[in-house]
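Most newcomers find our protein records easier to grasp once they have seen one. There is nothing in a record beyond a sequence line and a structure line. Getting from the letters to the tokens is the skill we practise here. An example says more than a description, so a record of this kind follows:
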Amino acid sequence: ALSPAAAWVADYYPVDLVERRDDETIIDFSAADARVAARLLLRLGNRARLVRGDEVAAQRDDLRSRILARYGVA
């Protein structure tokens, strides 16, 4: 789910539009590697949220933990 500030993702990447609302755009984002979607989610921060995708969530959480550990925040 993309906030208006992240709606550009639907134009930049090949996605399927699921639903468009005033406050967010729901897309179906497919990637051969879950890490691709995880990196994009982290880059978008609070401008996007994962609706479904357990493998993507696991990759996102792992990547987030490794980044925080690198900076001594974890």
